[in-house]
Amino acid sequence: MPVPWFLLSLALGRSPMVLSLEKLMGPQDTARCSPGLSCHLWDGDVLCLPGSIVSAPGPVLVPTRLQTELVLRCHQETDCDLCVRVAIHLAVHGHWEEPKDEDRSGRAADLELEEPRNAFLQAQVVLSFQAYPTARCVLLEVQVPAALVQPGQSVGSVVFDCFEAALGAEVRLWSYTQPRYQKELNLTQQLPDCKGLEVQDSIQSCWALPWLSVSADGDDVHLVLDVSEEQHFGLSLYWNQTGPRNITLNHTDLFPCLCIQVWPLEPDSVRTSLCPFKEDPRAHRNLWRAARLRLLSPQGWQLNAPCLLLAEATLCWQAPGGGPCLSLVPPLSRENVTVNKTLELPLLNAHPNLCVQVSSWEKLQLQECLWADSLGALKDDMLLLETRGPQDNRSLCALEPSGCTPLLSQASTRAARLGEQLLQDLQSGQCLQLWEDDLRALWACPMDKYVHQRWALVWLACLLLASALFLLFLVKKNQVKGWLRLLKEDLRAGAVARGRATLLVYSAEDSGFERLVGALASALCQLPLRVAVDLWSRRELSAQGPLAWFHAQRRQTLQEGGVVVLLFSPGAVALCHEWLQDGASASAPHGPHDAFAASLSCVLPDFLQGRAPGRYVGAYFEGLLHSEAVPALFRSVPVFSLPSQLPDFLRTLQGPGTLRPGRLGERAKRVSRALQPALDQLLQPPGDPGDPEDGTRVGT
């Protein structure tokens, strides 16, 4: 049963996350004010001409904040359009001018005379609205009593109903006064579509909308569209990114920013957008697999990825031979790394051992030694940290996995043993400065000459040993020859006793065929051969899985110069034909221990690319399959009929010259006797213990 990945369907009914909207009846625009203010909406729209900013002659009303709310404007109960209600918050800007050339004692009397003229503070507020393809500007006159005027304080708000807009549209709002005393306010908002609003009974364009759900079943992703049979619709997969982009999509291209858009093929139809993979862990794994670190210049680097990433980058030092990458000063900026943006490294010089690590949620995701291609392989250099103190005092330590080791110390590390030499190298200018600030510096000192000195002593010891052995050989030549002859015989006997590695691969069709394969494997172990077969490795097979188990066994067998034996049966031939025709694994289910079905993904490329001869042989059992039934592709290697061609089969497995013809014939008879009971039982038809010839099965 598919596990729901992300389900979004308004057809399931009311949801606490769906918005229920207020309905406004009638087409008229209106305006209302908060208590204490008076306002008037001019009839019709006006021209949007902000003009230049001018100085305020005194206290003036200015807009300070825009606030929106979604409502429905309805012509009938079930015929509504989405509408944007806008609230403009107002405040007083500026101060009263101080009186000039008048005595302060008469100021109160003058204000009493002017109060009737300045009983109200008035402003003309323009509200501009844009949502493709609509653009409107309305004018509101607002008055506030002078008693409420306090410079810098809010005096209230005016609410405008409303601007009609399309579902899913992007709307932009501006507000300013005429004349304009400050920079205009602006607000951009993305309106929801049908799936985010409780409007399917009120807005007719949502009635016929295709409803979309997404679910996952293993590696398969299912998009389910709920549409009527006669409805035509469009479907689009797109990247939720800006700028032009070419997209090639396959099953590994599920990323968090991959979105789906669906709409009915009708004029001015509403489009539903869905980004179902934002939180899916598999999409995030795909995103990190696709991310790459790239060096742009000696000090510039970039993180390339299809989507935005929340990640942090650090600088580290990677020593040759593996081991952890040591974090360095200076650290890179701990701020989130911006994808596809060039970033600077705070370095004076580049070095192949300097690497960049990118982590997300404290988990290492990427590590790249950006200069490895341009500056060559990792170097065995010693990294020194210089710390500067007051009065030109400085200390030096070497960054090692165990910590920062002081150069002149009694520690048992390589840096401590070579401390004086490294200090001389630094003073003589043989070290490369990587970074520096007021208190610290990083140096990379080459260690090649010290490694060469050590190897020179090793070579000298080897030369002395070789000279001593040569003198011993001259003195006791006859005895040495006897020792060498005995050693050669021991090695040959050990190689024969050890046997050649052999991997048996078969299709587990039934228990009778498995018994036959087990009898063959047991007989081959007596030759001796080192036989590997999944019958004897069921615990490892269950733990690793058939594909991983076969891949490991095949690699080990071929590395040791062994051979892989393909045992063909009717089921194995059918599987091969399915792979060769469809280019994929067989659609029929196979047992959890069927290594043959898993092995085809590794075996077929060797045959198709001509690498099979000398590494593979084929075999089939007489009575179960004709030689013509073996696919032609596999006849590029020897294919043997068992048990009649057992001598040739064993000679191929053990290699030429390992056995005399007489002994080879004896071993073939021994293997044939071990196989015959299991083969006769398999060929005998069910319920008939009689003539074995009547139970012979012929595969085609």
From TrEMBL:
Signal peptide: 1-20
Subcellular location as annotated: Cell membrane
Region (Disordered): 679-700
CC per GO annotation: plasma membrane
Superkingdom, natural source: Eukaryota
Topology of the protein relative to the lipid bilayer: Single-pass type I membrane protein
GO MF, one example: interleukin-17 receptor activity
Residue ranges occupied by any SEFIR domain in the UniProt entry: 499-651
Record keywords: Cell membrane, Disulfide bond, Glycoprotein, Inflammatory response, Membrane, Receptor, Signal, Transmembrane, Transmembrane helix
Ranges that cross the membrane: 455-475
GO biological process: inflammatory response
Quaternary assembly: Homodimer; disulfide-linked. Heterodimer with IL17RA. Heterodimerization with IL17RA is independent of the cytoplasmic tail. Associates with non-glycosylated IL17RA constitutively. Binding of IL17A and IL17F induces association with glycosylated IL17RA. Forms complexes with 2:1 binding stoichiometry: two receptor chains for one interleukin molecule. IL17A homodimer preferentially drives the formation of IL17RA-IL17RC heterodimeric receptor complex, whereas IL17F homodimer forms predominantly complexes with IL17RC homodimer.
Protein name per UniProt: Interleukin-17 receptor C
Organism: Mustela putorius furo (European domestic ferret)
Taxon lineage: Eukaryota, Metazoa, Chordata, Craniata, Vertebrata
